[in-house]
Amino acid sequence: MSRPSASTSSSSRSSRSRYGKEVKELQDALNQNKIESKRDAIRKIIDAMTRGKDVSMLFPDVAKNMETSNLELKKLVYLYIINYAKIMPDLAVMAVNSFRKDARDKTNPFLRALAIRTMGCIRVKLITEYLLDPLKESIKDEDSYVRKTAAICISKLYDVSPELIEEQGLLKLLENLLNDGNAMVVANAVCALLIVQESKGTTMLQLNPFTIQKILTAMNECNEWGVIYCLDALAMYIPEDGKEAEAILERVSPRLNHNNPGVVLSACKIMMKFLDYLQNPETIRQNALKMTAPLISLLSLGKEPEIQYVALKNINLIIQKRPIIIEKDIKVFFCNFNDPIYIKLQKLEVLAKLANNDNIQQILHELKEYTQEVDVEFVRKAVRTIGRCAIKLEKAAEKCVTALWECLKTKVNYVVMESIIVIRDIFRKYPRKYEMILKDLCENLKSLEDPEAKASMIWIIGEYVDTIENADTLLANFSENFKDEPANVQHQILVAVMKLFLQRPNDGKELIHNLLKTATIECENPDLRDRAYIYWRMLSTDPELAKKIVFTERPTISDSSYTIENELLDKLIENIGNLSSVYTKKPESFVKKLRDVLNSKIADKIDDVYDQDQLMDGRPEDYSDQQGGQSNVYDNTYDTSSQIQSQIQQQQIQQVSQKIDLLELDDNQPQQQQIPQQQQQIPQQQQIPQQQQQIPPQQTQQPNQTQNVRIPFAEVLSVNTPGAQSQIQGLSVEAAFQKNGDKIVLDLKITNKTQDKTFSDFGIKFNKNPFKLQPDAIEIQCQPVFPGQTQVTQSYINTNGPVSEEPPQMPYKIQVAFKTNLDVFYFFIPMSLSVLFSSTASITQQKFIELSQAQNLARKQEVLQIQIDPQRMKEKLERNYFFLIGVRKDERGVELLSYAATLVNGMALLANVIHTPTAINLQLQVPHPTLMPLLYQAIGFILTLN
Amino acid sequence: MISSLSFINQKGEILIYRVYKDDISRSEITQFCAKMIATKENKESPIINIDQTSFIHISIKDIIILATTKTDVNVAMVLEFLYQLSKICKSYFQGILDENCIKKNFVLIYEILDEVLDYGIPQIADPNILQKFIQEGGIQQETSMNIERLRQLTVTITGAVSWRPTGLHYEKNELYLDIIESVNLLISAKDTVLRAEVVGSIELKSKLTGMPECQIGMNDKLLMGKQARTTKQNGGIAIDDMKFHPCVGLPKFEKDRTITFIPPDGHFQLMSYRISENINIPFKVNVIYSDISENKLEIRLKIKSIYDKNVYGTNIAVKVPVPKNTVNVISATALGKAKHEIEEQSVIWRIKKLQGDVETSLRCDISLGATNKEQTWSKPPLKMEFQIPMFTSSGLRVRFLKVMEKGAYKTNKWIRYLTRGGEYLHRL
Q: Residue limits of the Beta-adaptin appendage C-terminal subdomain domain (chain A) (predicted)?
């Protein structure tokens, strides 16, 4: 019989009839009494199953044999049942009794364990319930082999019926197994808890000093696999302090000498993570160096190539985080002739990272050797690596260029092409430094099949039109096939010819004329056509200016394209040895389960975001944190806490006044108190005109406000809040800081809710704050506010005030003293960070890359659950001075937008933004962690408000 | 964790297929197989992700062992597990793992797969223990009836000393120790040493009664004390890295650098190590390729053994690469035989026995056929294979080997040394 690879449903009729006969024979054999004939029959069935044949119709006949006392036969029957139970749930119920009986077998622990293990694999909800009793008993079994099987079984059944398992308290029982006396049982319990944790999305394995001790102890006694589960669990622990981290490291580091690479890498994972918690540089160094030899051993010749591959991928991460670990041992990364290609490519990757001015000679020597090998992919990457070294190491660049020069001379097609591509980058990085190789470059024009190589060559010619004498003929040759070239080559031809014309008008005149004509009339590519049009216009208006623009200085490039962003790197370090470290991707990007859990968490977050939106709609209580906002406490409805809170409140008020006293507001206060009395009589006369004047300020505001997001007013002073000096109540103030062009303004809405008092002579002063904000003038230009009236005012704010060393808190509030004719009020005005964004874009792409790699930045992933058109999003951010720095696409084509804003104090805020139809994923980087929630909030405001 | 395991033959047919979690379908495996066959050279990474499923595989000769998963598993662990699984199979099938024996023993393999993984989580992979309770034809009836025996087994599987069953008895206690070193060497065309490394292992065969504790001491620098660090000759050997069998207590080793262990029964690898300093390179090789004319090439090769005079190298094979278009080779040598082997694209010079401190040479006259000149010949490196008994390239020696057990306990101990060529390469 041939071996079909798919099911037999499609097989021909003749084979089907023969097949039917076979089935009949098997049925007969299964129903016989002789154990041998049964065994033979079921072996045949399993064989057919392996080959992908459908033998499910035999289920009843096979299942009948479950109750056999022959263990081998039983195992085969179980194997069959596991395979088909899912598609035949009704029949699977038949198996339940046998499991229940076997799980309670008095004599044979293997039989009990087999039943427990197998019943967990029958993933049919219907029968889970019947299995719980035997499972519960097996958790308390006297035999550790049964208990360790039971631990895993709980995680199996959890995946089938999570609610049932939780209701029945099995998770609790699983947790209790952490206290088991047998190390393998503990290790399996740890593993099972982590599996449940992953599906459930909440912490199941409580890691605290107590459980950590348990795990560490178990690790000493269980087998190598158990050690791995223990280590992987430990890696999730966040140590209390450096001391604890060091103590754990001491217990973990001996595992680096284990024979199993899984153990070694898991130990490295903990070491890498916990080193961050140590303070003493010497301890860090010593611990880090412990990893060196074990890691290199993973690359010994003769080690399994697949394991070497995983090791190389992880070494690549580890040395980016802590280069000290592998500094000297470059030779192990030299490629062996017989290494599989995937290892060779990884080794080149590591070599490029390790290259420095001391070892470059040696590395270059190796790389040159590789360029003579036959595998095209490997050779090209070797050439590219030479180029990377040149860009990375300025001092060694010349040596690298010499090496590339030799590559050019080989005349081997793919070597030459790759060399040209990297030489382009080198010319870009070191302009006009290595002109000596131009001649050899120009000799290789014919063999350029690869469009990128061709485009690179043309770019080089364009760049050196003044040096390359026959540049005009060369470019003319390239232009001949202009229309048939791929877009990037066309593009470069256009740019190069433009450069030729600007530098050598006489030689390029005809060429540019024809080219612009072709490009504008015959080309369909809009980018190219537009560029041609722009050039045309530029040339026809001001050729000198055009020259300036075309030959403008370009930002320098660096070898950062291969480094992993720090935020991702940290995440990957946490997953050393795992698949994510090999894919260099976050786990949730390829594990659906994790993503589902994450999404449900995001759903929770949406609520938070909405809460934050509301807070700006005038629910000031949301603004307050434990530090207390002035206004909200009186709105507070919980009785017990309100008294305490009001006490705190009062203390705070005192503190506030003390603080502001320090601001020397005291000097003003006597005046403030005097002035009101003088002016108190005036207001009534002005009552009527006042009402009319009330509106204009708002109107005049509006045109200005259209540009920036308008932050809604928040109540900052409630009518019930008494003044600090005369305890006057009845004044309500709503306030909002706004950005208005490049100015920061404070909008105040002052409402007089008293029956008989008139407020006037307003003044405002800020407490010291981190961004040095202060009003331009203390006095507020405002008409007196009569009872029942509201006035809206606007004050300009500058950033020359005194500075407070305290970092901003979330929510960010400015403490102010608000002076009126009658009393002085103290309150906080909330502020959106977006108001502090500087209106000029000062961060270049280069700077952005530098900043994003800086070590001392705080990083966080956030998700904004809002639906917004991507164009609108970009426009809104840009309009609020959150500037687009660059756009990248990852391998899946997802657009990653890089944004940056500068705060008025010069701090840079960075964000990588991924737009999705349902949410916006943010990757925030700020110089101080307390700015994180503020930035998140600010972006939320910008995108949700108008 | 692992969702499924399969054994696949060269044609991409599934020989063994065991599912541990039902998040994977057979069709995904067959698709992967089809892909593997299509890209026959197996150039791709051993770990690939297709549609959210990760395929992790190793190749043992013509057999591919494939694990699939949908989670972010510890892939280093999975790969190591797959290799250990292949070793388990080999231990059952007399060192062979091929399509034939898989087909013949598929029932047994399924039984093993049921025990080594539970829900895709590695449980036990020690062949010695597995063989105690998984046998072709099932556990013998008498064992499965003997409660005491069964209990001992489960204790062994889950116990702290899971590698050694209790109650062993031998008439004579014997312990054999082998130090086996592979020299990996890479020498550039200009005769500079690019890489020299010894990967060694200490293999033990124990036939010991009871639960004895053993201790081993070597002339390792760290074991001998740190004071001698500056004087290399007396200070012992600097071992870069050591890896131990699980039976060696690692915390104790970390504390006082003593290697103490309760050995498994029978043959096992106690430790492996790596040394990269002060390696005694056993052979000096000198080779000259000279183009006589367009279709004539001459190779002159000299090797010199630089180990002690009373040590003999055996089974020496020097693989001298020759161009593809080699038509005829005339070789002349005083020692051994040289032969052109077309499949290997080399002349292989074999010497049965070579005393220390001896120089010998080979000369080959090669006639070349017509060739298209475009592809220049990229010479692969020259490779040497050899075995040198009673010699260690690293200089490592066993200083003592103790077996400690209660009562009058006598043990016969044997110690042997062997160095062989690993990746012993000269670039040309």
A: 839-943
Of A70, A42, A35, residue with least CA distance to B144: A70
Which residues are CB-neighbours of A473 under 8 A, at least 6 positions away?
Answer: none
Q: Quick check: B74 and A293 CB within 8 A? A: no
A35-50 and A71-84 helices, crossing angle to 10°:
30
To 10 degrees, the CA torsion angle through A846, A849, A853, A854? 50
Average pLDDT value over all residues in chain B = 86
Q: Is there a contact between A301 and B19 if contact means CB atoms under 8 Å apart?
A: no
- The C-alpha atoms of residue A686 and residue A696 are separated, in whole angstroms, by 17
Sign of the torsion angle spanned by Cα atoms A697, A699, A701, A704: negative
B355 closest CA partner among B426, B423, B304: B304
Asked if B46's CB is within 8 angstroms of A72's CB, the reply is no
Any chain A CB within 8 A of the CB of B76? yes
As a whole number of Å, the CA-based R_g of chain B is: 26
ipTM of the complex: 0.84
**Residue contact B73–A107, C-beta within 8 A:** no
**C-alpha span between A700 and A785 (Å, rounded):** 20
Do you find a cis peptide bond into A933, omega within 30 degrees of 0?
Answer: no
Quickly tell me which residue has 């024809």 as its tokens. A514
Residues A430 and B85: their CA atoms lie apart, in Å, by 54
* A18 — pLDDT class (breaks 50, 70, 90): low
List, in order, residues 6 or more apart from A633 with CB less than 8 Å away. A624, A642, A645, A646, A649
Residues of chain A with C-beta less than 8 angstroms from the C-beta of B43: 340-342
Q: Running DSSP on this structure, what letter comes out for residue A712? A: P
Residue B309 burial class via C-beta count within 10 angstroms: exposed 0-12, middle 13-18, buried 19 and up: exposed
Q: Is the pTM of this model over 0.90?
A: no
- Using one digit for the tens of pLDDT, what is the confidence trace for B255-308? 777 889 999 888 889 998 999 888 999 999 999 988 888 888 899 999 999 999
Please say whether the beta carbons of A42 and A53 come within 8 A: no
H or E stretch at B15: strand B14-19
Q: Quick: pLDDT tens for A40-68.
A: 898 899 999 888 888 888 888 888 888 88
8 A C-beta contact, residue A724 and residue A823: yes
> How distant is the Cα of B334 from the closest Cα of chain A, in angstroms?
30
List the structure tokens of A63. Answer: 């299942």
